[in-house]
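[audit] Reproducing an earlier prediction to check determinism. Same input, same settings, fresh worker. If the tokens differ from the archived copy the diff job will pick it up downstream; this log only records the rerun itself.
[audit] input (137 residues):
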Amino acid sequence: MISMTFSSTVENIERAVLYTSDFVARLKKSIDTFGLRLVLSEGITNAIVHGNKENAAKPVSVKIKLTETRITISVKDTGGGFDWRSRVTEGMPEFDSPRGRGVALMQAYGYEVQFNDKGNILTLTRKLDPHPDEPNQ
């Protein structure tokens, strides 16, 4: 498991994404690194910008658990949360909408999206191929 906590500044988004995704990619070479970075970036950006309102005094925590068959990512902010229920089921927003694509993108890359009741902890889960180099039977 990898775990990190950092302040809510936009400068930390790319650092956290690269550090965690590179760590995971070294352990699980077959993982879709682009998709992993995309969902991490979406989750961390939402925590910093929307959850903690870019208040550097408020921390964001990221935990990643990796097994042979599954990756679980948790992103936690200390903000007031949000009504996630409408976001999980509404799909993609209008084409010209500047926001609202995060959950749909995460789902499009094969991640199951869950939130705690309050809406300040995002959990992403994705099944992984335990034997990616073996030919299909």
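[audit] rerun output stored. Observation attached for the diff report: The chain has four helices and five strands.
[audit] end
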